[in-house]
Model the fold of this input.
Amino acid sequence: MYNEKVMDHFNNPRNVGTIEEPSVIVQVGDPDCGDTLLLSLKIKKEKIIDIKYKIYGCGAAVATSSIASVMARGKSLDEALKITDKLIAKELGGLPKEKEHCSNLAAGALRAAINEYRKSALKSL
Ligand code: FES
Done:
């Protein structure tokens, strides 16, 4: 059902964990399936210097969170905002049709974290 790259990220997920003193941490859930992603970012000078997550979800959610963390690490916030669910699935070489929605979790969490970070940065001005 899954290709080799998806299976690799599912079996060896990258960047799993929680950053100790994150710049921002968000929890995002998919109301349809109940899967949840806890995402923490360390940001310096508008750049993601560290990214970690904990995922409670299906195999595709694990693989998409893993590849999304690899894609986002080292990117500027503006670049990271361009990481869409479709790009994540493409980077994995595609997902089965019924699993395509699973990449929304990582893309949504990344967006939510960056928006949250920017909101709190504005408040501290
Ligand atoms: S079924 Fe919920 S994210 Fe995959």
